[in-house]
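Entry 14. Ran structure prediction on the chain below.
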Amino acid sequence: MKVGSGFDAHKFEKGRRLILGGVTIEYELGLAGHSDADVLLHAVTDAIAGASLGTDIGGLFPDTDEKFKDIDSRLLLREAVKQAALKGWRVGNVDATIIAQKPKLSPYRYDMIRNIAEDCLLDEEDVTVKATTTEKMGFTGRGEGIASTAVVLMYKTEGKNTYMEET
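Output, structure tokens:
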């Protein structure tokens, strides 16, 4: 088994949708970024890449590559899970935290969990998504952006590759 940790942060920008965990959040600002700027899925993808692929999300999907411009981060997460599976690794569980002063995220939490579970080939009970504030400290506390952290447990599979059977 291996443990991976991931982190991502993006600043707010007018004229963009706010997407977290593959869910569109009702808010007047979105996050700036090359892709859809989904900090939650980027942190999860980063954790998977670190634990099982010896790289990070930028190594897998560089922001200098136009094919990733405005891409749905769920596609990136699924590709990282697939690449890990091809090396004999599976995701065991995901524990993620979104750090944001605003907006309120609890109404969207279940949909985020469902998306991550689906993309990582997990049961929903194996995914935790939490949200916290920084008590108005730092860039997230001042409402300048959102950050996210994630920890994943990866385990080696035995025998044939099970990823292809489940997708």
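The mean pLDDT is 93. Will compare against last week's run tomorrow.
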